[in-house]
Specification:
- The structure is a single chain.
- The protein has about 350 residues and is mainly α.
- Among the domains are: about 130 residues, no CATH class; about 60 residues, no CATH class.
- The protein has ten helices and eight strands.
- The chain has a two-stranded antiparallel ribbon with strand order 1-2. Strands 3-4 form a two-stranded antiparallel sheet.
- A hairpin with a 4-residue loop joins strand 3 and strand 4.
- The protein is flat and about 80 Å long.
- One of its GO terms (biological process) is protein targeting to membrane.
- Its EC number is 2.3.1.225.
- Pfam families: DHHC.
- Its main location: membrane.
Length: about 350
């Protein structure tokens, strides 16, 4: 039947069905595991190839290698989306691999290049190293965290029992509160993530750079992680500035840039990427704080103006970072005017 149709989905699945037809009936279908792991580590491997090629084969023309390599990497990223370009439609790990590659190569540059070449401020180096270790610890912790999965239905206020689909029909209520995938009746501000295939309480968003959802139990940890990333990247840029001021002290700014472009592009490229990441991270953190200051999440945003004062919103942010409930609730926000974006 699939071979008789000419739509994209039928054309894509026909050769797979023909291949499966040749297998034994007990054959267990597995997804593209190798492809998934390759997409995850491809950015780190590609950047390693760029760095090694420029250093060993074209040491005087490093800029050409880095520019060509970064164009290839950017074009590869533009060709990816939330899901893999495969019939399995698994979550695409390319963006998570890019984030990991940035952390990894920044740490390698700082430990094996900047510290040996510029160690005149031991207190600064120790502080940056400890913060970097804390960053990787938080990275591991948030990857292993439970976002707050809704594992059972909301309980009925009168009987105290977990509600079922029947309870939504008699008496008649909103049937869309029932999730057919998780088979639970969702509480208010609970949303199903199609990438994770799970319902989460107070869901904020699915992060492509971490391959996890951010919800009730790990949303505050995510904001702390972003803060730690911003501080670490700032210290890295300061360390690079100290290194440049010593290594190129006799050159002007333009000559320094030109020299680094052709002979020290590893440092220059990571400076550019970390500087761009700081701008992106500051904007992300500003948006997150503007949302949580009103006691909301990205998914359940309200377009109405807030009635909270500036002081109340600041206290709400502090309470959120401490893992507590909002200090003040916005009276202009209710379940009726909260919508999904």
């Amino acid at each position: 039947l699939a071979a008789q149709r000419n739509k994209y989905g039928h054309i894509e699945i026909t050769p797979i069905l023909q291949w499966l037809a040749k297998k034994d009936k007990s054959y267990i279908v597995r997804g593209p595991v190798f492809t998934w792991w390759w997409l995850l580590f491809m950015p780190a491997v590609l950047y390693s190839v760029i760095a090694l090629t420029s250093y060993y084969f074209l040491p005087s023309h490093q800029g050409m290698v880095y520019i060509a390599g970064m164009i290839v990497l950017i074009l590869s990223l533009l060709g990816h989306n939330h899901r893999m370009n495969h019939v399995c439609r698994w979550p695409d790990p390319m963006f998570a691999g890019t984030f990991f590659a940035g952390l990894l190569h920044t740490a390698i540059l700082q430990i094996f290049y900047l510290i040996p070449n510029y160690n005149e401020y031991p207190v600064f180096i120790v502080m940056a190293t400890l913060l970097g270790l804390n960053l990787f610890y938080m990275y591991y912790k948030i990857l292993r965290s439970d976002p707050g999965a809704a594992k059972e239905s909301v309980r009925d206020q009168e009987s105290g029992k977990c509600m079922t689909l029947v309870d939504l029909c008699v008496p008649q209520r909103k049937v869309d509160l029932y999730c057919p995938v998780c088979e639970v009746v969702r509480a208010p501000r609970t949303k199903h993530c199609r990438l994770c295939e799970q319902c989460y309480e107070n869901m904020d968003h699915h992060c492509l750079f971490l391959l996890i959802c951010l919800a009730k139990k790990n949303h505050a940890l995510f904001c702390w992680f972003i803060i730690c990333c911003l501080v670490s990247m700032t210290l890295f840029l300061v360390h690079c500035a100290l290194y440049i001021s010593r290594a190129y002290s006799d050159l002007t700014y333009s000559n320094t840039f030109y020299t680094m472009l052709w002979t020290d592009c590893w440092v220059l490229s990571l400076i550019a990427m970390n500087a761009a990441s700081i701008l992106w991270g500051v904007n992300l953190l500003r948006f997150q704080f503007s949302v949580v200051s009103r006691g909301m999440t990205t998914v359940f945003m309200s377009r109405t103006k807030t009635a909270l004062t500036q002081q109340e919103r600041i206290v709400n942010i502090l309470y959120f970072l401490m893992g507590r409930e909002p200090f003040a609730e916005d009276p202009l926000i209710c379940s009726q005017n909260t919508h999904t974006v």
